[in-house]
């Protein structure tokens, strides 16, 4: 166990343990401890199976130092430091995740939505999603949507794509409006 997390005795359910093994099994022990610790800070806020899997993937990719991972979760708990915020509200819109680069510029952000088939496949649901995306865009928030099937098939690929987009946002100097994080 990493000395930075001396009280780490987190008991996740079977599903989370399977995802941990799948996504974090190749990490060194210190990285695994860091991933478990950071997942524990957001786990209670995740309301669906695909959100839980995406949460593990976002943390695992970042802790592993993926190509566009920022090392955001290296030193502080993710939920407290604001890097990976589940169930984040912008106005009346509840986002599955808000990623931001709070340590450098909190207004470099990306909304990540996990679109399960049951809630996002009907014409009405797609129209609702387009309205939400327009509302978020008007506030400078870019949205990246991942179909649930893709998250289950390739969670680390989805996380890599999200971090790549966040990197593009940063490199292009795009910023969320000031009021998004109030």
User: How helix-rich are the residues, as a percent range?
Assistant: 40-55%
Q: What is the 3D form?
A: globular
Please report the total strand number as a whole number.
4
Structural class by SSE content: alpha+beta
Largest sheet: 4 strands, mixed
The number of domains is 1
Please list the strands of the largest sheet in the order they lie side by side. 1-2-3-4
Number of helices: 8
Radius of gyration, rounded? 16 Å
Termini distance? 36 Å
Give the topology, please.
Elements: H1 14-24, H2 29-42, H3 49-63, H4 78-81, E1 84-90, E2 93-101, E3 105-115, H5 117-120, H6 123-137, E4 142-147, H7 148-153, H8 155-171
Parallel strand pairs: 3-4
Antiparallel strand pairs: 1-2, 2-3
Helix pairs in contact: 1-3, 2-3, 3-8
Description of the molecule:
This protein has 182 residues and is of the alpha+beta class. It has one domain. Helices cover 47% and strands 18% of the residues. It contains eight helices and four strands; from the N terminus they run ααααβββααβαα. The protein has helices at 14-24, 29-42, 49-63, 78-81, 117-120, 123-137, 148-153, 155-171; strands at 84-90, 93-101, 105-115, 142-147. A four-stranded mixed sheet has the order 1-2-3-4, sandwiched between helices. Helix 1 packs parallel to helix 3 (49-63) and helix 3 crosses helix 8. The longest helix has 17 residues, at 155-171. It starts with 13 loop residues before the first helix and ends in an 11-residue tail after the last helix. The model is unreliable at 73-82 (pLDDT under 50).
């Amino acid at each position: 166990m990493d000395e930075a997390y001396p009280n780490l005795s987190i008991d996740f359910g079977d599903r989370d343990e399977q995802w941990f093994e799948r996504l974090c099994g190749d990490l060194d022990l210190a990285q695994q401890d860091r991933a478990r610790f950071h997942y524990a800070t957001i786990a209670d806020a995740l309301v669906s199976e695909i959100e839980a899997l995406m949460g593990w993937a976002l943390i695992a990719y970042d802790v592993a130092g993926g190509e566009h991972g920022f090392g955001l979760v290296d030193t502080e708990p993710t939920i407290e430091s604001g890097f990976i915020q589940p169930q984040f509200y912008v106005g009346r819109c509840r986002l599955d995740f808000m990623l931001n680069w709070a340590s450098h510029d909190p207004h470099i952000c990306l909304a990540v939505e996990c679109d399960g088939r049951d809630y996002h496949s009907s014409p009405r649901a797609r129209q609702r999603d387009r309205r939400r995306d327009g509302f978020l865009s008007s506030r400078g928030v870019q949205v990246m949507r991942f179909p649930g099937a893709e998250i289950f098939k390739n969670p680390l690929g989805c996380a890599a794509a999200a971090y790549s987009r966040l990197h593009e946002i940063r490199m292009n100097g795009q910023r969320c409006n000031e009021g998004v994080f109030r």
